[in-house]
Automatic annotation (TrEMBL):
It comes from Deinococcus deserti (strain DSM 17065 / CIP 109153 / LMG 22923 / VCD115). InterPro entries: Pept_M3A_M3B, Pept_M3A_M3B_dom. This is Putative peptidase M3, putative oligoendopeptidase F. GO terms for molecular function: metal ion binding; metalloendopeptidase activity. It comes from the Bacteria.
Length: 569
Protein backbone atom coordinates (compact mmCIF):
# COMPACT_ATOMS: atom_id res chain seq x y z
CA UNK A 1 0.00 0.00 0.00
CA UNK A 2 1.37 3.43 -0.93
CA UNK A 3 1.40 6.24 1.58
CA UNK A 4 -1.32 8.08 -0.33
CA UNK A 5 -3.48 4.94 -0.28
CA UNK A 6 -2.96 4.75 3.49
CA UNK A 7 -4.10 8.37 3.79
CA UNK A 8 -7.21 7.69 1.74
CA UNK A 9 -8.01 4.65 3.88
CA UNK A 10 -7.58 6.70 7.06
CA UNK A 11 -10.08 9.26 5.76
CA UNK A 12 -12.80 6.77 4.83
CA UNK A 13 -16.25 7.61 6.17
CA UNK A 14 -19.25 5.32 5.67
CA UNK A 15 -22.58 6.57 4.38
CA UNK A 16 -24.10 5.73 7.75
CA UNK A 17 -21.59 7.93 9.56
CA UNK A 18 -22.68 10.85 7.42
CA UNK A 19 -26.32 10.72 8.56
CA UNK A 20 -27.91 12.42 11.54
CA UNK A 21 -30.05 9.35 12.22
CA UNK A 22 -26.90 7.52 13.30
CA UNK A 23 -26.36 9.86 16.23
CA UNK A 24 -29.83 11.14 17.12
CA UNK A 25 -30.90 8.26 19.44
CA UNK A 26 -27.86 8.73 21.66
CA UNK A 27 -28.49 12.46 21.96
CA UNK A 28 -32.09 11.70 22.88
CA UNK A 29 -30.99 9.19 25.53
CA UNK A 30 -28.64 11.74 27.07
CA UNK A 31 -31.36 14.38 27.05
CA UNK A 32 -33.98 12.10 28.61
CA UNK A 33 -31.76 10.76 31.41
CA UNK A 34 -32.68 11.85 34.93
CA UNK A 35 -29.44 13.66 35.68
CA UNK A 36 -28.15 14.08 39.23
CA UNK A 37 -24.87 15.57 40.35
CA UNK A 38 -23.54 12.08 41.09
CA UNK A 39 -24.43 10.87 37.59
CA UNK A 40 -22.78 13.78 35.75
CA UNK A 41 -19.29 12.22 35.29
CA UNK A 42 -20.59 9.12 33.48
CA UNK A 43 -23.10 11.20 31.50
CA UNK A 44 -20.32 13.59 30.41
CA UNK A 45 -18.14 10.66 29.33
CA UNK A 46 -20.91 9.33 27.06
CA UNK A 47 -21.59 12.79 25.62
CA UNK A 48 -17.85 13.29 25.05
CA UNK A 49 -17.59 10.01 23.14
CA UNK A 50 -20.55 10.99 20.96
CA UNK A 51 -19.07 14.42 20.27
CA UNK A 52 -15.76 12.80 19.38
CA UNK A 53 -17.44 10.59 16.79
CA UNK A 54 -19.11 13.57 15.15
CA UNK A 55 -15.88 15.56 15.18
CA UNK A 56 -14.06 12.59 13.67
CA UNK A 57 -16.43 12.37 10.73
CA UNK A 58 -16.44 16.11 10.11
CA UNK A 59 -12.64 16.29 10.27
CA UNK A 60 -12.15 13.39 7.87
CA UNK A 61 -14.65 14.73 5.35
CA UNK A 62 -13.02 18.17 5.59
CA UNK A 63 -9.51 16.84 5.01
CA UNK A 64 -10.70 14.66 2.11
CA UNK A 65 -12.33 17.71 0.52
CA UNK A 66 -9.10 19.70 0.94
CA UNK A 67 -7.08 16.94 -0.71
CA UNK A 68 -9.53 16.88 -3.63
CA UNK A 69 -10.67 20.45 -4.25
CA UNK A 70 -11.25 19.47 -7.89
CA UNK A 71 -13.56 16.56 -6.96
CA UNK A 72 -17.19 17.73 -6.91
CA UNK A 73 -18.36 14.58 -5.11
CA UNK A 74 -15.92 15.12 -2.23
CA UNK A 75 -17.06 18.72 -1.89
CA UNK A 76 -20.74 17.81 -1.97
CA UNK A 77 -20.34 15.07 0.61
CA UNK A 78 -18.64 17.43 3.07
CA UNK A 79 -21.17 20.19 2.48
CA UNK A 80 -24.07 17.79 2.95
CA UNK A 81 -22.63 16.70 6.29
CA UNK A 82 -22.34 20.33 7.37
CA UNK A 83 -25.86 21.11 6.20
CA UNK A 84 -27.71 17.96 7.25
CA UNK A 85 -25.91 16.70 10.36
CA UNK A 86 -24.17 19.57 12.12
CA UNK A 87 -27.19 21.87 12.64
CA UNK A 88 -29.09 19.09 14.43
CA UNK A 89 -25.97 18.22 16.41
CA UNK A 90 -25.50 21.86 17.39
CA UNK A 91 -29.09 22.15 18.60
CA UNK A 92 -28.84 18.87 20.50
CA UNK A 93 -25.53 19.93 22.03
CA UNK A 94 -27.02 23.22 23.20
CA UNK A 95 -29.88 21.34 24.85
CA UNK A 96 -27.39 19.11 26.69
CA UNK A 97 -25.45 22.15 27.88
CA UNK A 98 -28.66 23.61 29.27
CA UNK A 99 -29.41 20.30 30.95
CA UNK A 100 -25.97 20.19 32.57
CA UNK A 101 -26.17 23.79 33.75
CA UNK A 102 -29.51 23.08 35.45
CA UNK A 103 -28.29 20.12 37.52
CA UNK A 104 -28.79 21.10 41.17
CA UNK A 105 -25.87 20.95 43.58
CA UNK A 106 -23.37 20.12 40.83
CA UNK A 107 -19.90 21.58 41.28
CA UNK A 108 -17.48 20.79 38.47
CA UNK A 109 -14.15 19.27 39.48
CA UNK A 110 -11.03 21.35 38.98
CA UNK A 111 -10.16 19.75 35.66
CA UNK A 112 -13.60 20.59 34.24
CA UNK A 113 -14.26 23.97 35.85
CA UNK A 114 -12.97 26.00 32.91
CA UNK A 115 -15.01 24.12 30.35
CA UNK A 116 -18.09 24.30 32.57
CA UNK A 117 -17.71 28.08 32.54
CA UNK A 118 -17.20 27.97 28.76
CA UNK A 119 -20.39 25.93 28.42
CA UNK A 120 -22.23 28.59 30.41
CA UNK A 121 -20.86 31.36 28.22
CA UNK A 122 -21.62 29.42 25.02
CA UNK A 123 -25.21 28.90 26.16
CA UNK A 124 -25.59 32.65 26.67
CA UNK A 125 -24.26 33.28 23.15
CA UNK A 126 -26.36 30.61 21.44
CA UNK A 127 -29.14 31.72 19.10
CA UNK A 128 -31.35 29.37 17.09
CA UNK A 129 -31.12 31.66 14.07
CA UNK A 130 -27.36 31.20 13.99
CA UNK A 131 -27.55 27.45 13.55
CA UNK A 132 -28.74 27.54 9.94
CA UNK A 133 -26.75 30.71 9.29
CA UNK A 134 -23.67 28.81 10.44
CA UNK A 135 -24.24 26.31 7.61
CA UNK A 136 -24.30 29.20 5.15
CA UNK A 137 -21.09 30.51 6.71
CA UNK A 138 -19.30 27.18 6.23
CA UNK A 139 -20.46 26.93 2.62
CA UNK A 140 -19.11 30.42 1.95
CA UNK A 141 -15.75 29.49 3.45
CA UNK A 142 -15.66 26.37 1.32
CA UNK A 143 -16.00 28.53 -1.81
CA UNK A 144 -12.68 30.09 -0.85
CA UNK A 145 -11.07 26.63 -0.47
CA UNK A 146 -12.26 25.52 -3.89
CA UNK A 147 -11.18 28.74 -5.63
CA UNK A 148 -7.69 28.76 -4.14
CA UNK A 149 -7.21 24.98 -4.18
CA UNK A 150 -7.65 24.92 -7.94
CA UNK A 151 -5.33 27.84 -8.69
CA UNK A 152 -2.60 27.27 -11.25
CA UNK A 153 0.43 29.41 -12.08
CA UNK A 154 1.88 29.64 -15.58
CA UNK A 155 5.62 30.26 -15.34
CA UNK A 156 8.20 29.69 -18.04
CA UNK A 157 5.75 27.64 -20.08
CA UNK A 158 5.04 25.35 -17.10
CA UNK A 159 1.83 24.96 -15.13
CA UNK A 160 2.73 24.98 -11.43
CA UNK A 161 0.85 24.76 -8.15
CA UNK A 162 0.97 27.82 -5.89
CA UNK A 163 3.58 26.24 -3.54
CA UNK A 164 5.78 25.25 -6.47
CA UNK A 165 5.67 28.80 -7.86
CA UNK A 166 6.35 30.34 -4.45
CA UNK A 167 9.53 28.30 -4.23
CA UNK A 168 10.94 30.40 -7.10
CA UNK A 169 10.67 33.50 -4.89
CA UNK A 170 13.64 32.17 -2.93
CA UNK A 171 15.96 32.17 -5.96
CA UNK A 172 19.20 34.17 -5.60
CA UNK A 173 18.59 35.37 -9.17
CA UNK A 174 16.56 38.55 -8.98
CA UNK A 175 15.11 38.16 -12.47
CA UNK A 176 13.82 34.69 -11.61
CA UNK A 177 12.23 36.01 -8.42
CA UNK A 178 10.59 38.85 -10.31
CA UNK A 179 9.19 36.52 -12.96
CA UNK A 180 7.79 34.21 -10.28
CA UNK A 181 6.27 37.14 -8.40
CA UNK A 182 4.51 38.46 -11.52
CA UNK A 183 3.26 34.96 -12.39
CA UNK A 184 1.84 34.51 -8.89
CA UNK A 185 0.30 38.00 -9.04
CA UNK A 186 -1.35 37.16 -12.36
CA UNK A 187 -2.76 33.95 -10.89
CA UNK A 188 -4.05 35.75 -7.82
CA UNK A 189 -5.67 38.50 -9.87
CA UNK A 190 -7.58 35.89 -11.88
CA UNK A 191 -9.43 34.78 -8.74
CA UNK A 192 -9.44 38.15 -6.98
CA UNK A 193 -12.88 39.24 -8.19
CA UNK A 194 -14.42 35.93 -7.14
CA UNK A 195 -12.70 36.15 -3.75
CA UNK A 196 -13.97 39.72 -3.36
CA UNK A 197 -17.51 38.39 -3.75
CA UNK A 198 -16.89 35.59 -1.24
CA UNK A 199 -15.54 38.09 1.28
CA UNK A 200 -18.49 40.45 0.96
CA UNK A 201 -20.83 37.52 1.52
CA UNK A 202 -18.81 36.41 4.54
CA UNK A 203 -18.85 39.90 6.04
CA UNK A 204 -22.62 40.12 5.67
CA UNK A 205 -23.05 36.70 7.27
CA UNK A 206 -20.68 37.47 10.12
CA UNK A 207 -22.42 40.74 10.87
CA UNK A 208 -25.75 38.94 10.96
CA UNK A 209 -24.35 36.29 13.32
CA UNK A 210 -23.40 39.13 15.68
CA UNK A 211 -26.77 40.87 15.39
CA UNK A 212 -28.61 37.63 16.05
CA UNK A 213 -26.60 37.25 19.27
CA UNK A 214 -27.34 40.86 20.32
CA UNK A 215 -23.72 41.89 19.95
CA UNK A 216 -22.72 45.33 18.70
CA UNK A 217 -20.35 43.97 16.07
CA UNK A 218 -18.72 40.76 14.89
CA UNK A 219 -15.53 41.47 16.82
CA UNK A 220 -17.49 41.44 20.10
CA UNK A 221 -19.31 38.29 19.02
CA UNK A 222 -16.11 36.55 18.01
CA UNK A 223 -14.38 37.65 21.23
CA UNK A 224 -16.95 35.70 23.21
CA UNK A 225 -17.04 32.78 20.78
CA UNK A 226 -13.24 32.42 21.10
CA UNK A 227 -13.43 32.79 24.91
CA UNK A 228 -10.96 35.66 25.00
CA UNK A 229 -11.02 36.50 28.70
CA UNK A 230 -7.37 37.26 29.42
CA UNK A 231 -6.92 40.37 27.22
CA UNK A 232 -8.94 43.08 25.50
CA UNK A 233 -9.15 44.79 22.09
CA UNK A 234 -7.24 47.68 23.67
CA UNK A 235 -4.38 45.28 24.48
CA UNK A 236 -4.35 44.25 20.82
CA UNK A 237 -4.17 47.85 19.65
CA UNK A 238 -1.25 48.40 22.03
CA UNK A 239 0.42 45.36 20.47
CA UNK A 240 -0.01 46.81 16.97
CA UNK A 241 1.64 50.05 18.11
CA UNK A 242 4.47 48.23 19.87
CA UNK A 243 5.26 46.18 16.76
CA UNK A 244 5.14 49.33 14.63
CA UNK A 245 7.62 51.07 16.93
CA UNK A 246 9.84 48.21 18.13
CA UNK A 247 9.83 45.56 15.38
CA UNK A 248 9.26 47.38 12.08
CA UNK A 249 12.51 49.40 12.55
CA UNK A 250 14.44 46.17 13.22
CA UNK A 251 12.92 44.50 10.14
CA UNK A 252 13.78 47.60 8.09
CA UNK A 253 17.35 47.47 9.43
CA UNK A 254 17.69 43.78 8.57
CA UNK A 255 16.42 44.27 5.04
CA UNK A 256 18.55 47.37 4.55
CA UNK A 257 21.69 45.45 5.52
CA UNK A 258 20.82 42.58 3.18
CA UNK A 259 20.09 44.97 0.31
CA UNK A 260 23.42 46.72 0.84
CA UNK A 261 25.35 43.45 0.81
CA UNK A 262 23.57 42.33 -2.37
CA UNK A 263 23.98 45.68 -4.08
CA UNK A 264 20.23 46.30 -4.35
CA UNK A 265 19.22 49.94 -4.62
CA UNK A 266 15.80 49.18 -3.09
CA UNK A 267 13.67 46.31 -1.81
CA UNK A 268 11.01 45.30 -4.30
CA UNK A 269 8.11 42.91 -3.51
CA UNK A 270 10.02 39.99 -5.03
CA UNK A 271 12.98 40.76 -2.75
CA UNK A 272 11.02 40.27 0.47
CA UNK A 273 9.73 36.93 1.72
CA UNK A 274 9.05 37.24 5.44
CA UNK A 275 9.48 33.48 5.89
CA UNK A 276 12.83 33.36 4.14
CA UNK A 277 14.80 36.60 3.86
CA UNK A 278 17.31 36.84 1.03
CA UNK A 279 20.73 35.40 1.66
CA UNK A 280 23.13 38.39 1.97
CA UNK A 281 25.81 36.41 0.12
CA UNK A 282 23.49 35.62 -2.76
CA UNK A 283 23.63 31.87 -2.17
CA UNK A 284 20.98 29.44 -3.31
CA UNK A 285 18.32 28.70 -0.74
CA UNK A 286 18.88 25.63 1.36
CA UNK A 287 17.35 22.51 -0.17
CA UNK A 288 17.71 19.83 2.53
CA UNK A 289 15.53 17.24 0.77
CA UNK A 290 13.83 16.41 -2.52
CA UNK A 291 10.78 14.29 -1.70
CA UNK A 292 8.22 14.08 1.06
CA UNK A 293 9.67 10.75 2.17
CA UNK A 294 13.13 12.33 2.49
CA UNK A 295 11.63 15.10 4.61
CA UNK A 296 9.99 12.51 6.85
CA UNK A 297 13.30 10.72 7.33
CA UNK A 298 15.08 14.00 8.10
CA UNK A 299 12.47 14.82 10.73
CA UNK A 300 12.50 11.30 12.15
CA UNK A 301 16.21 11.58 12.95
CA UNK A 302 15.77 15.03 14.44
CA UNK A 303 12.97 13.85 16.74
CA UNK A 304 15.04 10.81 17.71
CA UNK A 305 17.84 13.12 18.81
CA UNK A 306 15.44 15.29 20.76
CA UNK A 307 13.26 12.71 22.53
CA UNK A 308 12.49 9.03 21.96
CA UNK A 309 8.80 9.33 22.73
CA UNK A 310 8.35 12.22 20.30
CA UNK A 311 10.18 10.15 17.68
CA UNK A 312 7.83 7.21 18.30
CA UNK A 313 4.78 9.43 17.89
CA UNK A 314 6.08 10.74 14.57
CA UNK A 315 6.88 7.22 13.42
CA UNK A 316 3.29 6.26 14.20
CA UNK A 317 2.07 9.09 11.97
CA UNK A 318 4.32 7.91 9.14
CA UNK A 319 3.15 4.30 9.36
CA UNK A 320 -0.60 4.85 9.72
CA UNK A 321 -1.54 7.35 7.01
CA UNK A 322 -1.45 10.50 9.15
CA UNK A 323 0.84 12.53 6.86
CA UNK A 324 0.20 13.91 3.39
CA UNK A 325 3.12 16.15 2.44
CA UNK A 326 3.53 16.29 -1.34
CA UNK A 327 2.16 19.17 -3.41
CA UNK A 328 -0.36 18.04 -6.07
CA UNK A 329 -2.85 19.70 -8.40
CA UNK A 330 -6.27 19.91 -6.79
CA UNK A 331 -4.88 19.93 -3.25
CA UNK A 332 -5.49 22.98 -1.10
CA UNK A 333 -2.30 25.01 -0.76
CA UNK A 334 -2.24 25.70 2.98
CA UNK A 335 -0.60 23.57 5.69
CA UNK A 336 -2.39 22.46 8.84
CA UNK A 337 -2.84 19.79 11.47
CA UNK A 338 -6.28 18.19 11.83
CA UNK A 339 -7.37 15.85 14.64
CA UNK A 340 -9.43 12.64 14.90
CA UNK A 341 -10.49 12.43 18.56
CA UNK A 342 -11.94 8.93 18.73
CA UNK A 343 -8.53 7.43 18.04
CA UNK A 344 -6.52 10.37 19.40
CA UNK A 345 -4.77 10.77 16.04
CA UNK A 346 -3.52 14.01 14.49
CA UNK A 347 -3.25 14.43 10.72
CA UNK A 348 -0.78 16.77 8.99
CA UNK A 349 -1.40 18.18 5.52
CA UNK A 350 1.37 20.09 3.71
CA UNK A 351 2.59 21.01 0.21
CA UNK A 352 6.36 20.50 0.26
CA UNK A 353 8.70 21.52 -2.53
CA UNK A 354 12.13 20.79 -1.01
CA UNK A 355 12.96 23.97 0.91
CA UNK A 356 14.25 24.66 4.39
CA UNK A 357 10.96 26.46 4.97
CA UNK A 358 9.24 23.10 4.46
CA UNK A 359 11.43 21.68 7.24
CA UNK A 360 10.34 24.47 9.58
CA UNK A 361 6.67 24.05 8.68
CA UNK A 362 6.81 20.29 9.23
CA UNK A 363 8.27 20.74 12.71
CA UNK A 364 5.56 23.35 13.31
CA UNK A 365 2.66 21.14 12.24
CA UNK A 366 4.02 18.07 14.00
CA UNK A 367 4.34 20.21 17.14
CA UNK A 368 0.58 20.61 16.85
CA UNK A 369 0.31 16.85 16.42
CA UNK A 370 2.26 16.27 19.63
CA UNK A 371 -0.20 18.59 21.38
CA UNK A 372 -3.05 16.40 20.16
CA UNK A 373 -1.33 13.19 21.21
CA UNK A 374 -0.34 14.34 24.70
CA UNK A 375 -3.53 16.19 25.59
CA UNK A 376 -5.56 13.25 24.27
CA UNK A 377 -3.56 10.81 26.37
CA UNK A 378 -4.05 12.86 29.53
CA UNK A 379 -7.59 14.19 29.07
CA UNK A 380 -10.44 11.69 28.53
CA UNK A 381 -13.09 14.37 27.87
CA UNK A 382 -12.92 15.74 24.35
CA UNK A 383 -13.49 19.34 25.54
CA UNK A 384 -10.40 19.15 27.76
CA UNK A 385 -8.04 18.34 24.89
CA UNK A 386 -5.85 20.77 22.97
CA UNK A 387 -5.93 24.19 24.66
CA UNK A 388 -7.24 27.73 24.38
CA UNK A 389 -6.12 29.27 21.10
CA UNK A 390 -3.78 31.73 22.82
CA UNK A 391 -1.63 28.73 23.73
CA UNK A 392 -2.25 26.32 20.87
CA UNK A 393 0.57 27.65 18.67
CA UNK A 394 3.23 27.28 21.39
CA UNK A 395 3.62 23.50 20.94
CA UNK A 396 4.15 24.08 17.22
CA UNK A 397 6.37 27.16 17.30
CA UNK A 398 8.48 25.93 20.21
CA UNK A 399 9.13 22.71 18.28
CA UNK A 400 10.70 24.80 15.49
CA UNK A 401 13.32 25.92 18.02
CA UNK A 402 13.67 22.76 20.11
CA UNK A 403 14.74 20.76 17.03
CA UNK A 404 17.50 23.23 16.10
CA UNK A 405 20.27 21.26 17.81
CA UNK A 406 19.24 17.98 16.12
CA UNK A 407 19.63 18.78 12.44
CA UNK A 408 23.35 18.12 12.10
CA UNK A 409 22.66 14.96 10.10
CA UNK A 410 20.79 16.96 7.44
CA UNK A 411 22.65 20.27 7.41
CA UNK A 412 26.36 21.06 7.57
CA UNK A 413 27.66 23.49 10.16
CA UNK A 414 27.34 26.44 7.80
CA UNK A 415 23.93 25.31 6.57
CA UNK A 416 22.67 24.84 10.12
CA UNK A 417 23.85 28.35 11.00
CA UNK A 418 21.93 29.66 7.99
CA UNK A 419 18.82 27.70 8.96
CA UNK A 420 19.02 29.06 12.50
CA UNK A 421 19.47 32.59 11.21
CA UNK A 422 16.45 32.22 8.92
CA UNK A 423 14.36 30.97 11.83
CA UNK A 424 15.29 33.97 13.99
CA UNK A 425 14.79 36.38 11.10
CA UNK A 426 11.42 34.76 10.52
CA UNK A 427 10.21 35.82 13.97
CA UNK A 428 11.24 39.41 13.30
CA UNK A 429 9.69 39.39 9.83
CA UNK A 430 6.50 37.72 11.00
CA UNK A 431 5.51 40.12 13.78
CA UNK A 432 4.75 43.10 11.48
CA UNK A 433 2.65 40.82 9.30
CA UNK A 434 0.78 39.47 12.34
CA UNK A 435 0.11 42.99 13.62
CA UNK A 436 -1.14 44.04 10.19
CA UNK A 437 -3.44 41.03 9.92
CA UNK A 438 -4.89 41.64 13.37
CA UNK A 439 -5.26 45.40 12.88
CA UNK A 440 -7.08 44.82 9.59
CA UNK A 441 -9.60 42.52 11.27
CA UNK A 442 -10.23 44.92 14.17
CA UNK A 443 -11.06 47.58 11.59
CA UNK A 444 -13.06 45.21 9.41
CA UNK A 445 -15.31 43.86 12.13
CA UNK A 446 -15.63 46.78 14.56
CA UNK A 447 -14.91 50.01 12.69
CA UNK A 448 -15.56 49.59 8.95
CA UNK A 449 -18.59 51.38 7.45
CA UNK A 450 -21.91 49.57 7.27
CA UNK A 451 -22.01 49.86 3.49
CA UNK A 452 -18.59 48.31 3.07
CA UNK A 453 -17.14 48.00 -0.43
CA UNK A 454 -14.23 46.09 -1.92
CA UNK A 455 -12.54 49.45 -2.46
CA UNK A 456 -12.74 50.05 1.30
CA UNK A 457 -11.06 46.70 1.98
CA UNK A 458 -8.30 47.42 -0.50
CA UNK A 459 -7.74 50.96 0.78
CA UNK A 460 -7.43 49.87 4.41
CA UNK A 461 -5.02 47.07 3.54
CA UNK A 462 -2.81 49.50 1.60
CA UNK A 463 -2.79 51.91 4.54
CA UNK A 464 -1.71 49.18 6.94
CA UNK A 465 0.84 47.69 4.56
CA UNK A 466 2.56 51.06 4.22
CA UNK A 467 2.71 51.25 8.02
CA UNK A 468 4.03 47.75 8.72
CA UNK A 469 6.11 47.15 5.57
CA UNK A 470 7.43 50.60 4.66
CA UNK A 471 10.71 49.19 3.38
CA UNK A 472 9.10 47.45 0.37
CA UNK A 473 9.17 49.72 -2.69
CA UNK A 474 6.15 49.48 -5.04
CA UNK A 475 6.86 52.43 -7.32
CA UNK A 476 5.87 51.69 -10.92
CA UNK A 477 3.96 48.53 -9.99
CA UNK A 478 0.24 47.86 -9.93
CA UNK A 479 -0.75 48.67 -6.36
CA UNK A 480 -3.98 46.80 -7.02
CA UNK A 481 -1.88 43.69 -6.46
CA UNK A 482 -0.65 45.04 -3.15
CA UNK A 483 -4.18 46.01 -2.17
CA UNK A 484 -5.30 42.38 -2.40
CA UNK A 485 -2.91 41.23 0.32
CA UNK A 486 -5.92 40.79 2.60
CA UNK A 487 -7.06 37.85 0.43
CA UNK A 488 -5.28 35.48 2.79
CA UNK A 489 -6.36 32.12 4.19
CA UNK A 490 -7.13 33.20 7.77
CA UNK A 491 -9.19 36.23 6.75
CA UNK A 492 -11.60 33.86 5.02
CA UNK A 493 -11.31 30.70 7.09
CA UNK A 494 -10.44 31.70 10.67
CA UNK A 495 -11.60 35.24 11.47
CA UNK A 496 -9.70 36.88 14.32
CA UNK A 497 -7.36 33.94 14.65
CA UNK A 498 -3.95 35.44 13.99
CA UNK A 499 -2.60 37.49 16.88
CA UNK A 500 -2.24 34.16 18.67
CA UNK A 501 0.65 33.32 16.34
CA UNK A 502 2.47 36.42 17.54
CA UNK A 503 1.76 35.70 21.21
CA UNK A 504 3.03 32.17 20.81
CA UNK A 505 6.08 33.12 18.75
CA UNK A 506 7.15 35.45 21.54
CA UNK A 507 6.66 32.61 24.02
CA UNK A 508 8.52 30.15 21.78
CA UNK A 509 11.54 32.46 21.70
CA UNK A 510 11.38 32.59 25.49
CA UNK A 511 11.26 28.79 25.70
CA UNK A 512 14.25 28.52 23.37
CA UNK A 513 16.15 31.07 25.45
CA UNK A 514 15.58 28.88 28.51
CA UNK A 515 16.42 25.69 26.59
CA UNK A 516 19.84 27.07 25.65
CA UNK A 517 20.82 26.87 29.33
CA UNK A 518 18.88 23.70 30.30
CA UNK A 519 17.49 21.78 27.33
CA UNK A 520 16.22 18.79 29.34
CA UNK A 521 14.17 20.92 31.74
CA UNK A 522 12.76 23.03 28.93
CA UNK A 523 11.63 19.90 27.04
CA UNK A 524 10.12 18.36 30.19
CA UNK A 525 8.11 21.54 30.85
CA UNK A 526 7.05 21.61 27.21
CA UNK A 527 5.65 18.07 27.33
CA UNK A 528 4.00 18.62 30.72
CA UNK A 529 2.23 21.74 29.46
CA UNK A 530 0.79 19.80 26.51
CA UNK A 531 -0.76 17.25 28.87
CA UNK A 532 -2.70 20.01 30.64
CA UNK A 533 -4.85 20.35 27.55
CA UNK A 534 -7.62 22.88 28.06
CA UNK A 535 -7.94 22.46 31.83
CA UNK A 536 -5.88 25.50 32.89
CA UNK A 537 -6.22 29.23 32.20
CA UNK A 538 -3.98 30.71 29.52
CA UNK A 539 -1.54 32.45 31.90
CA UNK A 540 -1.06 29.19 33.83
CA UNK A 541 -0.36 27.26 30.62
CA UNK A 542 2.33 29.77 29.70
CA UNK A 543 3.87 29.54 33.16
CA UNK A 544 3.90 25.74 32.83
CA UNK A 545 6.30 26.14 29.89
CA UNK A 546 8.51 28.54 31.86
CA UNK A 547 7.44 31.81 30.22
CA UNK A 548 4.95 34.60 30.87
CA UNK A 549 1.75 35.43 29.00
CA UNK A 550 2.83 38.84 27.75
CA UNK A 551 2.83 40.74 24.47
CA UNK A 552 3.26 44.30 25.73
CA UNK A 553 5.79 46.86 24.52
CA UNK A 554 8.45 46.24 27.17
CA UNK A 555 8.33 42.48 26.64
CA UNK A 556 8.54 42.84 22.87
CA UNK A 557 11.41 45.30 23.17
CA UNK A 558 13.35 42.89 25.38
CA UNK A 559 12.83 39.91 23.06
CA UNK A 560 13.80 41.98 20.00
CA UNK A 561 17.03 42.95 21.76
CA UNK A 562 17.69 39.27 22.43
CA UNK A 563 16.97 38.30 18.81
CA UNK A 564 19.15 41.09 17.49
CA UNK A 565 21.98 39.89 19.73
CA UNK A 566 21.55 36.32 18.49
CA UNK A 567 21.47 37.41 14.86
CA UNK A 568 24.61 39.44 15.25
CA UNK A 569 26.30 36.47 16.89
Amino acid sequence: MTQLEAVERKLQVSDTQGRWETYAPRFVALQEQNLTAAAVPDWLARWSALSAELNDVGSKLSVHADLHTDDAAAQIRYQEFLAQVMPSAQRAGHALIQKLLSVPDYTPPADFALNYRRFRDAAALFREANVDLGVVHEAQKNRHSVLTGNQKVMLGGQELTIPQARQRLDSPERREREEAWHALADSNLKVAVDLDAVMLDLIATRRQLARNADETNYRDFRWKELDRVDYTPADCRAFHEAVRDEVVPLTTELMGAIATQLGLDRIRPWDYNRNNLLDPQGRESLKPFKTGVELEELAQRAFAGLDQDLAARFQQMRETGLLDLESRPGKMTHAYCQYFPTTNEPFVLMNVVGTAEDVRVLFHEVGHAFHGFYSGDAQPLVWNRWSPIEFVEIPSMAMEFLTLDHLGHALSGDELARYREKLLQGVVGFLPWAAQMDAFQHWLYAEAPEKLTVADLDHKWLELDRTFHPFVEWEGLNEGIRAKGWQYYHIFQAPFYYIEYAMCYLAAVGIWREARSDAASALARYKASLRLGSTSPVPELYRATGVEFRFDRDYIRGLMAFLKEQLQA
